């Protein structure tokens, strides 16, 4: 679903938005403006688009395998969002101009004057957040059960 929504939103952005005009959604904080990113986040690595494509393909393979091995719902959901976001941007790199494996990622969500992203980037962030909350929650549960076990052993000693 993430890939379908991402690719549909990029197609709409390509047909409706301009690279020069920004449509404000929340004043200057969030708007819509078309941009093409040959690099990674914030345009880093823009001179090595083919390398970013290879890394993206490798990452999607690893994420797909991890998704198949997920043992909890939160882990599967987090990896699913990250996989969908990564695949959405890899599709751009593989198929968008200027050519196969060197394509630019279509961006359209303008966050103030900081950067312009897309829904694949949002999905990546959601996936990371889900995994972080899941890890934090399982760590808290483990810490709590360890503390309870420790208190239980101390209480028997205290009862002597």
From TrEMBL:
GO terms for molecular function: aspartic-type endopeptidase activity. InterPro entries: Peptidase_A8. It comes from the Bacteria. It is found in: Cell membrane. The gene is lspA. PROSITE patterns: SPASE_II. Keywords: Aspartyl protease, Cell membrane, Hydrolase, Membrane, Protease, Transmembrane, Transmembrane helix. It is a multi-pass membrane protein. Belongs to the peptidase A8 family. This protein specifically catalyzes the removal of signal peptides from prolipoproteins. Its main location: membrane. The active site is at 107, 121. Pathway: Protein modification; lipoprotein biosynthesis (signal peptide cleavage). This is Lipoprotein signal peptidase. Signal peptide: none annotated. The chain crosses the membrane at residues 40-67, 74-91, 111-136. Its EC number is 3.4.23.36. It holds the Pfam family Peptidase_A8. It catalyses: Release of signal peptides from bacterial membrane prolipoproteins. Hydrolyzes -Xaa-Yaa-Zaa-|-(S,diacylglyceryl)Cys-, in which Xaa is hydrophobic (preferably Leu), and Yaa (Ala or Ser) and Zaa (Gly or Ala) have small, neutral side chains.
């Amino acid at each position: 679903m993430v890939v379908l929504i991402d690719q549909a939103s990029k197609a709409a952005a390509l047909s409706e938005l301009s690279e020069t005009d920004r449509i404000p959604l929340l004043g200057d904080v969030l708007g819509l403006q078309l941009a093409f990113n040959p690099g990674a986040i914030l345009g880093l690595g823009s001179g090595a688009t083919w390398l970013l494509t290879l890394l993206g393909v490798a990452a999607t393979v690893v994420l797909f395998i991890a998704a198949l091995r997920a043992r909890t719902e939160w882990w599967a959901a987090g990896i699913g969002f990250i996989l969908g976001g990564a695949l959405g941007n890899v599709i751009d790199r593989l198929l968008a101009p200027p050519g196969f494996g060197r394509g630019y990622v279509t961006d359209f969500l303008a966050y103030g004057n900081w950067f312009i992203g897309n829904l694949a980037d949002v999905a990546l962030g959601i996936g990371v957040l889900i995994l972080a909350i899941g890890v934090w929650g399982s760590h808290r549960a483990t810490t709590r059960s360890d503390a309870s076990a420790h208190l239980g052993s101390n209480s028997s000693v205290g009862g002597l």
